[in-house]
Structures are given as C-alpha cells and as structure tokens.
Design a protein that fits this description.
The protein is mostly helical. Helices cover about 80% and strands about 0% of the residues.
C-alpha cells in the first residue's frame, strides 16, 4: 500500500485527478471535436459561476449586503446573446441599424 501511495504522490497526487478524468471522458466520448467542445463549454460555465460567486462573496464580505446586481447583468447579457443567435436574429439586425 505504501508503494502505491508513493507512486501516486510521485506522479502528482491529487493534481493528477483532472487529467485522469479528462482522459477517461475522452475515451468514453470518442470524437475529439465533441470532447473539445464539451471541455471548453464546461470551462466557460465554470468561469461564469466563479465570477458570480466571487462577486457575491466580495460584496457581501465588504458591505454585509446581498447584492445580486452583477449576476443579473451576466444573465441579461446571456439572454441578449441567446436572442441574437436563436430565433430573433432579424430583430437584432434591425436594432443594430443606424
């Protein structure tokens, strides 16, 4: 058991876990383009959640007030992006005309 633990620590310990999970997911998904798309989408979603959570904790920690304003702006931007890309693209083009 000590030999296995020493080998695990030598190869990176817990830092090796995301790499191992990524390789397992790559094998299970099969197509590299699908794996890359899912990886980038997951990282982008994680960054958005981190941005909202860190802003909320920073404002609450400094002012002792729950302020969801930054999350509302991120959500509103996502709503506009979704509206422009799906279904109502003509409305976005019409709004962009001078």
């Amino acid at each position: 058991m000590k030999t296995l633990s020493a080998t695990f620590e030598r190869f990176g310990g817990v830092m090796l876990l995301p790499v191992a999970l990524g390789l397992i997911a790559f094998v299970l998904i099969g197509r590299p383009s699908t794996w890359m798309t899912l990886t980038v989408a997951g990282l982008a979603m994680g960054m958005m959640i981190f941005l909202m959570a860190s802003g909320l904790s920073l404002i609450f920690g400094l002012m002792d007030v729950l302020n969801f304003g930054h999350s509302a702006f991120v959500s509103f931007g996502r709503l506009l992006q979704r509206a422009c890309l799906h279904g109502s693209a003509s409305g976005c083009r019409a709004a962009a005309r001078p």
